[in-house]
Write a structure and sequence with these properties.
By secondary structure, the protein is an alpha+beta fold. The protein has 4 helices and 11 strands. It has a 4-stranded mixed beta sheet with strand order 4-2-1-10, with no helix packed on it. Strands 3-8-9-11 form a 4-stranded mixed beta sheet, with no helix packed on it. Strand 5 and strand 6 form a beta hairpin. The radius of gyration is 17 Å and the shape is globular. The N and C termini lie far apart (35 Å). Bound molecules: FE2/S2 (inorganic) cluster.
Length: 210
């Protein structure tokens, strides 16, 4: 196993090139074989996902994002025991929040986050489980935290983005509150916030094998 730290590089109008990765999970949850250098598809067109098969050239993939600065904003929801911070631009719609603590995180209520509808422990559990880093939290008097373990890893989400933890990647712009501790990278090719996922795969019902 290489001692070098893993990195991710964006190939212009092409794949994400991952080096020195040792922890890789495929969409079915199984452990993926790793190589010192791997090219992962981010155009959505490869027939060999999650790997690049050169299809980006055929479809003329454009890896540039759009101007998303107006969507890059943190909303905070203060509670007695915990405050929640949310940057919608980063949300990949994994749904861990509603599945784990619906009284606190319910899109049908206004505001959609109500920290006082549960405990600080429930908020922490959700923030830990949120794969995108769109949700952070703080306890009274403390700084906002992105909660992630310290493993450097990539997991492929079925019909969704790459879930990345603790891997360095150079990008033109990191959003407000975003951290290398935990972020999600677009695989469908449709995000306006490339290389990051902005939830478009979910809005569009993207299926990786169709
Ligand atoms: S990025 Fe190369 S096939 Fe999708």
């Amino acid at each position: 196993m290489s001692e070098d730290k893993p990195t991710i590089q964006q190939r212009n109008n092409g794949p994400l090139v991952v080096k020195n990765l040792s922890s890789f999970r495929l969409a079915d949850g199984s452990r993926g074989e790793t190589k010192p250098v791997m090219a992962l598809c981010r155009c959505g067109a490869s027939k060999n996902k999650p790997f690049c098969d050169g299809s980006h050239q055929k479809i003329g993939f454009d890896s540039a994002g759009a101007d998303v600065s107006s969507r890059d904003r943190i909303y905070s929801y203060e509670g007695k025991e915990a405050t929640v911070y949310y940057n919608k631009l980063l949300c990949s719609h994994a749904g861990e929040c509603g599945a784990r603590a619906l009284p606190i995180f319910n899109p049908k209520q206004k505001p959609w986050v109500q920290p006082n509808a549960g405990t600080a422990a429930q908020v922490k559990d959700v923030v830990e489980a949120c794969p995108s880093g769109a949700l952070r939290y703080s306890l009274p008097g403390e700084e906002a935290q992105t909660l992630a373990d310290s493993d450097a890893a990539i997991a492929v989400e079925r019909d969704g983005p790459l879930r990345v933890k603790n891997i360095a990647m150079r990008a033109d712009h990191w959003a407000e509150g975003q951290s290398e501790q935990k972020y999600v990278l677009c695989r469908c090719g449709k995000s306006k916030n490339k290389p990051f996922c902005d939830g478009t795969h979910s809005d569009d019902g993207w299926k990786e094998n169709s």
